[in-house]
Amino acid sequence: MPRTYFPDNEAVNYECSGNKVILDCPPEPNNNLKKVIEIELDEKTSEVKLSHKIFNIGLWDVELSAWCLTVMAPEGRAIIPQEPYVAHGSEADESFAPARPLVLWQFTKMTDSRFIWGDKYIQFKEDSKIESKQKIGILNKQAWMAYALNGDLFLKKHDYCEDAEYPDYNCNAEFFTMPGFLEMETFSPLKRIAPGECVENCESWQLFKLDVSEDEADIDAKVLPLIFA
Question: Per the confidence metrics, is the pTM higher than 0.90?
Answer without folding.
Answer: yes
